[in-house]
Design brief:
Length: 329
């Protein structure tokens, strides 16, 4: 068994592989680097075979999304630790060691993540994870260093290694045994928020997640699905409701779910007023999908647990102007 396998899920990401795979290979000595290709239609596979013939390549028969792609690929990987790494991430020297060392010494922790900074603006945190993820009172995700679309400059304010609620799927190290014990990713999520769902289930099983800012990576973001895509809006709103249906205790769900539905419609109206009718329609489609699959989603509930107590992020952000993680705690 390999101790650590760095698994990059690729979909039409030849440009990113050309740019970032050299840093992964150079800075991941001792780990096995694996590319899992999600049925790319570009020249990714040809590029890999010609330039990295010694790397393990897993070719999936169809595009199974982030969730299905990783679930299928990881079944073929024999390692103690999985590192799930986006193709548009540049890693730094020694990035693996702090995370490996932490998990080696703390057996009740299932996963951890590095500090994730913006590749195009290295002074600020990156949207997808920053220095560790949390969710607020209504289940809205935010990060230590990123609240909604507000990204903080990194001046060392979040360099303390602390417990977090969720680890970013852009770069996550997780024990393989606990990944499978929790059930892996929910294939129905396809992409977006699947890591929050996974970490919530890990928490329900009694495991913890840690931020390890001593490890640093740089993420481009939006490499596979641009943030302006209505499909991304659809996934975020649909999966946000699924998170609550699957993981909140029923007494909390009865209170919070209707409020989330109402706030989603406020967001849909905001999209419309901003001249983004396709995004408004995406919210409608997300709700239709949620209610069509309502019973199916509820059947996935196992052990449920509430998230750590937090303020209502949207209230703090829009009405009180608190846009920093430190102001929400």
């Amino acid at each position: 068994m390999t101790k650590t396998a760095v698994v990059i899920l690729n979909y039409n990401g030849k440009t990113y592989l050309e740019k970032f795979l050299p840093s992964v290979v150079t800075n991941s000595l001792g780990a096995q680097v694996i590319i899992a290709d999600n049925a790319s239609t570009d020249d990714s596979i040809t590029f890999l075979k010609e330039n990295y013939p010694n790397l393990t390549l897993i070719v999936l028969p169809e595009n199974l999304g982030f969730t299905g792609g990783y679930n299928s690929a990881l079944k073929q990987v024999d390692a103690e630790y999985f590192v799930l790494l986006n193709s548009d991430v540049e890693v730094t020297p020694g990035w693996l060691q702090p995370m490996e060392t932490f998990l080696d010494k703390h057996l009740n922790y299932a996963a951890c993540q590095p500090k994730i900074k913006d590749f195009n603006n290295p002074e600020i945190f990156e949207y997808a994870g920053a220095s560790g993820g949390f969710i607020d009172f209504l289940g809205y995700p935010y990060c230590r260093g990123r609240i909604l679309d507000h990204l903080e400059n990194d001046h060392g304010q979040y360099d303390e290694s602390i417990d977090i609620f969720w680890s970013s799927g852009a770069c996550m190290m997780i024990r393989s045994t606990m990944f499978w014990e929790s059930g892996g990713f929910d294939n129905d999520f396809f992409a977006h928020m699947e890591e929050i769902d996974l970490c919530w289930r890990l928490s329900s099983l009694g495991y913890k997640v840690k931020s390890i800012p001593q490890s640093v990576v740089y993420h481009v973001g939006g490499g596979t699905l641009d943030k302006t895509s209505p499909f991304k809006t659809y996934l975020n709103f649909r999966n946000g409701l699924s998170l609550l249906l699957k993981n909140l205790p029923y007494d909390k769900l009865l209170l919070k779910f209707p409020v989330r539905v109402l706030l989603d419609w406020v967001a849909a109206l905001k999209f419309l007023l901003e001249g983004k009718p396709k995004h408004s329609l995406a919210v409608l489609k997300a709700h239709i999908s949620t209610f069509i699959n309502f019973r199916r989603t509820l059947k996935k509930r196992t052990i449920t647990s509430t998230a750590p107590k937090s303020k209502l992020m949207i209230f703090e952000y829009y009405l009180r102007g608190n846009k920093k993680f430190s102001e929400l705690q």
